[in-house]
Amino acid sequence: MRALVHTRDGGRCVRCDSPRDLTIHHRVNRGMGGAREEWINQPQNLLLVCTECNGWFEDHPRESYSHGWKVRRPMLPSEMTVLYPNGAEFVLLPDGTRSRVTRPLTTGGAR
Q1: What per-residue confidence (pLDDT) applies to 111?
Q2: How far apart are CA 15 and CA 12, in angstroms?
Q3: CB neighbours (10 Å) of residue 69?
Q4: Residue 5 CA neighbour count, 13 Å, CB half
Q5: pLDDT in tens, 1-27
Q6: Given pLDDT bands bounded at 50, 70 and 90, which one contains residue 108?
Q7: Domain boundaries, the chain
Q8: What residues are paired with 92 via a beta bridge?
Q9: Confidence band of 38 (pLDDT split at 50, 70, 90)
Q10: Starting from the edge strand earliest in sequence, which strands make up the sheet with 98-101, in order?
């Protein structure tokens, strides 16, 4: 699973793009004693992050949830997009791949 996540995320932290001190981060916390959900340790719930950003997520919950680096229950990680360092948003899929989300362009309104 680690190798799958490492490959999907390009061997770099999904928040700061660092290639150093990488670890696996659970978007939905496992909770005390682990969790019973089968997806908790699956690719859609896992991100490759550096240890510094892993701590940052806990200190900055608002930004972490709004960018999809963390996911609140009862939402499922496959339902929430993740912001990557290049500004692109992706949905993480159970097979270890990701799908880019494209947002429609908005216009400034007619005059």
Answers
A1: 45
A2: 9
A3: 23
A4: 19
A5: 999 999 999 999 999 999 999 999 999
A6: low
A7: 2-101
A8: 98
A9: confident
A10: 81-83, 89-92, 98-101
Closest CA to 21 of 10, 29, 13, 32: 13
Q: The pTM is what?
A: 0.87
Q: Which residues contact 71 (CB under 8 A, 6 or more apart)?
A: 27, 28, 45, 65, 77, 80
What is the DSSP annotation of 78-94? GGSEEE-TTS-EEEE-T
Residues in the chain: 111
Residue 30: the pLDDT is 84
Cα 104 from Cα 80, distance rounded (Å)? 18
